[in-house]
């Protein structure tokens, strides 16, 4: 089968396209005919070696997948041959990735794709959607009527947060770096969309939510807690899911006297059951048209290195040339 893989960690240019043996599903695994793969920052960090994880070389890149069940391994119970499925968590913690014509994937990390959702959309909302859901509901305990702020409302996780919070009955504030992205954030459902280059974000947040924000879902790698903590409501929750090298100053005086909470999490630490709870609800919202992935660029299998370079430029170098997910399609 054709696959995108590396034989050692390194830059995007180290990704090779070639033939590897077609996998056979082991006990508890499903063999998926892959149709779409979507990339996230974690894909860059693992492939480059920035984050050390156990890797079996040749290591196939790619975390998020959508496709069709080709065969079932012993003991599988949740799917039938021909089912359309999507999922995440591939390529992490010793598992092989999925940028290949076929992938053997543990059934506990796969979910049925709604009929109305394309494979590209399903793959694109996998890690970002599950991450957004875990942060908002398991850790953020978001309730209907509360107010959420998320920077980067057209980003991978940010766009999911905007739509999920609205689907759950919350009021949503977001920000973006251009008028076009601000307009798109409004289309996604934001009640207040701001341009962080021209708007006074703290002043506009206070104007919209005088008592403060209930859930601040921080997506930036270098958060400024001196600005954000005072904007939390009493008993407000701040969610942190990025910024491995960041060392922000924590204004304790604005934090603990108001019973605020600062919560960090990584999606791949969630149990399969916790992730499935998130996946089931986001798939339901997607089938109802309340949730849609933003796809920025689509590439063929032969251009995986270019796909990851584009994401790298916008994730690490902040080029600002991409809004939405990077997707690779495999016929």
Q: Give the rounded overall mean pLDDT.
A: 95
Q: Strand percentage, roughly?
A: 25-35%
Total individual domains: 2
Question: What's the architecture of the largest domain, going by CATH?
Answer: Alpha-Beta Complex
Classified in CATH, the superfamily of the largest domain is Medium-chain alcohol dehydrogenases, catalytic domain
Architecture overview:
By secondary structure, the chain is of the alpha/beta class. The protein folds into two domains: 2-125 and 293-329, Medium-chain alcohol dehydrogenases, catalytic domain (Quinone Oxidoreductase, Chain A, domain 1); 132-267, Rossmann fold (3-Layer(aba) Sandwich), CATH 3.40.50.720. The protein is 27% helix and 27% strand. The chain contains nine helices and 16 strands. The protein has helices spanning 41-48, 119-124, 126-139, 156-167, 179-188, 201-208, 225-228, 272-287, 304-315, and strands spanning 2-6, 16-19, 29-39, 59-60, 64-72, 84-87, 102-106, 110-112, 147-151, 171-176, 192-195, 213-218, 232-240, 261-264, 295-300, 325-329. Strands 3, 5, 6, 7, 8, 15 and 16 form a seven-stranded mixed β-sheet that branches. The chain has a six-stranded parallel β-sheet with strand order 11-10-9-12-13-14, with helices on both faces. Helix 5 (179-188) links the parallel strand 10 and strand 11 (192-195). Helix 3 crosses helix 4 (156-167) and helix 3 crosses helix 8. The two termini are 12 Å apart. The model has no long low-confidence stretch (mean pLDDT 95).
